[in-house]
């Protein structure tokens, strides 16, 4: 007689567990949708915004005003005349919009970056073709009286809130030579100027956000950011969002 009762109890427990799991999945999905809408309102991207909760106990956390850790993806953010993508990991998000900080990565495609760097450059170089070689940036332009192509290989780093581009080598007629090994005065003056380190201030970051690193990837330049704890910011890259009129998460 005990075995049927035990089977009934186990079956009932399984049904309850499955129901709770289904309810939690529904709550999690709805929370992710609300977060996506809130982020889209604040960032106003041209493309899509997706949010994913890390915690499997979202329903329980939400009862206490907590959300947990959240991963956010936003495409085609228009900032300072450039289109960029964002990946962010926010820790300890709450329904009132506060967080315990986090980190983010903003990627600017090379075709977008070229216009930005040449506008900020004072050497008069406007014909750079920018790409990546897996180690750093590559900047290709015509040089000398014959206009032969020269590719400058450069490392990227963040120093004192600025993006620093430091040429390390140059490739000319199939030969790659370290910058330090180039003879003084080789080539024209414009080419010589392009071999000097350049610093580009990262202006317009939200209050408390710090740039911590940079990487030249296959598709664009990625800048890593550290996000402060407190209220979620309503701006990225210098453009203020509409956080005041956006719904909470």
Q: How are the elements arranged and paired?
A:
Elements: H1 2-43, E1 49-53, H2 58-63, E2 66-79, E3 82-94, E4 98-99, E5 102-109, H3 110-120, E6 129-132, E7 137-143, E8 148-159, E9 162-172, E10 175-178, H4 189-194, E11 198-201, E12 210-216, E13 220-227, E14 230-231, E15 235-236, E16 239-240
How would you portray this structure in words?
The chain is α+β, with helices and mostly antiparallel strands. Helix content is 26%, strand content 42%. About 11% of the residues have low confidence.
Quick overview of this protein structure:
This protein has helices spanning 2-43, 58-63, 110-120, 189-194, and strands at residues 49-53, 66-79, 82-94, 98-99, 102-109, 129-132, 137-143, 148-159, 162-172, 175-178, 198-201, 210-216, 220-227, 230-231, 235-236, 239-240.
